[in-house]
Design goal:
The chain has 702 residues and is an alpha/beta fold. The protein has 30 helices and 20 strands. Helix content is 45%, strand content 11%.
Length: 702
């Protein structure tokens, strides 16, 4: 493998060509709008709608029919609940948990994100008492023998691996998979599918989602492999009605639709082809003023990039009354939990303008502070990337869409139905709003025709994302024979979809999965992790505990004694390159780096190069291991100031925090090798403790 001290920046995917209707605009009108400041105004037809704005009268909570039906279903068997965001799916989970607790049982609540798991841990601790709730996410691990365990799906999947290996029965009576539509996620859907296949039938399974287009198909598949009914409970009615709006560059609000068609003046605006270009995104402060004038706040602005989120908050005017006592009391409470944030560069604008940016480039503690202040009603608006749509639970009165496309981590593409419904599901707060709003902003990358279609579209059908990788194969071979594994693949959702689709073209997924498994098995045998009897060797057994993205490469370093000894900082640095899977460009001068660090990196690269070549020859792609993550983690481990690292490398706070947390998670996996590699496990524990400190983590959660 070629060592790299300077990784070339990858070319960012180009956005799709802007809609023809928006491509040309009248220069005179453009200049006119640019000189004018938006004047808040509204079409008369909106008068009745705006009159509905406000908090509904408080009343005693009465469960909806679909909620009661779901409770009856999950008490008897499996249940899949598909209902809009805010409709009350969490209440179903709470009542199901309460029912299990009354019988003396235990419950596992799994979510796709650590942030969601942390939030549920706090929420459930208040409802069911702290002593009854534990958490395990890789970063946090507390009270794991509690009757209610909250964590990430990967942790649950790993516990199922262990239970199969030890021939133990997972000691739970109910498993809830929140955000169940992640079953169709390209990168992580395999974990959801594995859980559904491995979970013992005696444990009832509750699936919760707002965006599943083929719930009946998933239910039928689960019933076929688990040999028990899986009831589908569907609720299509939003708890708070959604009103789509359009903001004219003059500041005039219009209905977006008129009897399922674009509102006449909106359509005329598009057809005149003089819609404003990117300049309207520079008028965020004016857009916010229009929203405030019409009582459309609080709002979540979905913005396409981190930099635009950060720029947007600077465009917002200060609020008139900044002496809100509750605002400052709650803010100080959050700052006491994360003192580092007192110097956060966006804290001043949060205080003065009551707005904030929220995206993956920010510290976990900052995002938690923003989420908390928003939930408490202290913020007028947040400017966020699309990750907020599925990542955290704080709705607003209005959702503002600046674009109709989305960068999904791989390329720009038009918003899908599921993505759109995740975003608009945040519009309208149950119990606080009688009506919610979607506000569309004209611009270069806003296709209003596409938005209109999405408003009447159903969520896309989920397709299986199951695939083999070395960690999966190693862990299955702990307890299964190859023929057993073949049977498991036959139970996959991919196999079910292939066999139950009338026009199924292409290869049989069962054969594809089996063929991929055999390819993995062949390499594992050649490398000595599996014997000729198809059972794991001693090396294979301990390598199976490395539930990582690159288990074989790290295992090879251990076998060849390539990792540093007696130096926690160097050890953490040697693991960091295996963690980073992005393409960010960071230039570091080799001559300015400690010799011991470059020596360790060179030794690791030299050690794994032959294995990488053999893997690539067998058709397994291997990403290059970049040097800069090692240098960054080393600097952090030896105590270099956070801001100095940020300035030196140019990476964001959030990316640095993510690198630290992912390195810590890999070190935690190495800690599991206490029996076979006690010195390595001890060094990994010390290294992990060295790097897990503020501001990468904050005391409230750790």
């Amino acid at each position: 493998m070629r060592q790299k001290f300077h990784n070339r920046p990858g070319k960012k995917p180009e956005r799709p060509e802007e809609p023809i209707a928006n491509r040309r605009f009248n220069r005179f009108v453009h200049r006119t709008y640019k000189r004018m400041r938006m004047k808040p105004d509204a079409e008369p037809v909106l008068k009745k709608t705006f009159a509905k704005i406000g908090k509904p009268p408080q009343s005693e909570f009465i469960p909806d029919a679909f909620q009661l039906e779901a409770i009856r279903a999950i008490n008897e068997s499996d249940c899949l609940v598909s209902a809009p965001t805010g409709a009350g799916k969490t209440w179903i989970a709470e009542e199901a948990i309460r029912s299990v607790l009354k019988r003396g049982g235990r419950c596992w609540y799994a979510s796709p994100l650590k942030a969601l798991s942390n939030s549920k841990w706090v929420e459930f601790s208040e409802i069911f008492k702290t002593e009854n709730v534990g958490i395990v996410t890789g970063d946090a691990k507390e009270n794991t023998e509690a009757p209610i365990l909250v964590g990430t799906t990967e942790i649950l999947r790993n516990q199922l691996y262990d239970a199969m290996h030890n021939m133990e029965n997972l000691n739970f009576d109910l498993v809830t998979l929140d955000e169940a539509h992640f079953l169709g996620d390209r990168d992580r859907g395999v974990v959801w599918e594995e859980i559904m296949i491995y979970l013992p039938t005696r444990i009832n399974l509750l699936l919760l989602s707002a965006t599943i287009g083929n719930a009946e198909e998933i239910s039928a598949w689960l019933s076929s492999i688990r040999k028990k009914p899986c009831r589908v409970i569907t609720e299509k009615k939003r708890p708070v009605p959604l009103v789509p709006l359009f903001l004219h560059p003059s500041g005039r609000l219009m209905p977006l639709l008129e009897k399922k068609h674009l509102f006449g003046k909106v359509e005329a605006f598009i057809n005149r082809r003089h819609g404003p270009s990117e300049w309207i995104s520079q008028r965020i402060g004016e857009i916010l003023d229009v929203c405030e004038h019409h009582r459309l706040l609080p709002a979540i602005f979905f913005v396409k990039s981190r930099s635009e989120c950060d720029a947007a908050v600077k465009m917002c005017d200060p609020v008139d009354d900044i002496q809100d006592k509750r605002f400052h009391e709650d803010l100080q409470e959050q700052l006491q939990k994360a003192p580092y944030l007192r110097n956060h560069r966006q804290l001043e604008v949060l205080i003065k303008s009551h707005v904030a940016a929220h995206h993956g480039g920010q510290l976990p503690s900052w995002k938690f502070l923003v989420e908390t202040m928003m939930k408490k009603g202290h913020l007028r608006a947040i400017f966020a990337t699309s990750t907020v749509a599925a990542g955290v639970n704080f709705p607003a009165r209005t959702i503002v869409l600046m674009n109709s496309d989305l960068f999904n981590g791989h390329n720009f593409s038009p918003l899908s139905s599921s993505e759109f419904h995740q975003m608009t599901g945040r519009a309208g707060r149950r119990g606080q709003d009688r009506v919610g709003f979607l506000l569309t902003i004209p611009g270069r990358f806003m296709d209003l025709v596409h938005i209109r279609e999405l408003l009447f579209s159903k969520p896309e059908a989920i397709t299986s994302q199951i695939r083999s990788d070395f960690s999966m194969v190693l862990n299955l071979l702990l307890s299964q024979t190859p023929e057993d594994i073949r049977t498991i693949f036959e139970k996959s959702f991919a196999s079910y979809q292939r066999s139950h689709t009338k026009q199924a073209n292409g290869a049989d997924p069962r054969q594809d999965l089996w063929s991929a498994f055999q390819d993995h098995l062949t390499l594992l045998k050649e490398e000595g992790f599996v014997g000729s009897d198809d059972r794991l060797t001693q090396n294979g057994v301990w390598a199976s505990k490395l539930r990582l993205d690159q288990p074989l490469l790290i295992a090879e370093c251990l076998r060849q004694n390539a990792l540093p000894k007696n130096d926690e900082a160097l050890f953490a640095a040697s693991i960091a390159p295996f963690v980073y899977d992005g393409d960010q460009d960071v230039f570091l001068m080799k001559k300015n780096l400690p010799k011991r660090l470059t020596n360790v990196y060179n030794r690791v690269i030299k050690t794994i190069r032959p294995l990488c070549e053999r893997m690539e020859k067998r058709g397994f792609p291997v990403s290059p291991l970049l040097f800069w993550p090692a240098a960054v983690i080393y600097d952090w481990a030896i105590g270099t100031d956070w801001n100095r690292i940020i300035t030196k490398t140019g990476i964001s706070d959030g990316d640095l925090a993510m690198l630290i947390l992912r390195t810590a998670d890999n070190l935690r996996q190495l800690m599991s090798l206490r029996e076979t590699h006690p010195e390595t496990a001890s060094l990994a524990a010390a290294a992990r403790e060295m790097i897990l400190r503020e501001p990468a983590v904050f005391s409230f959660l750790y």
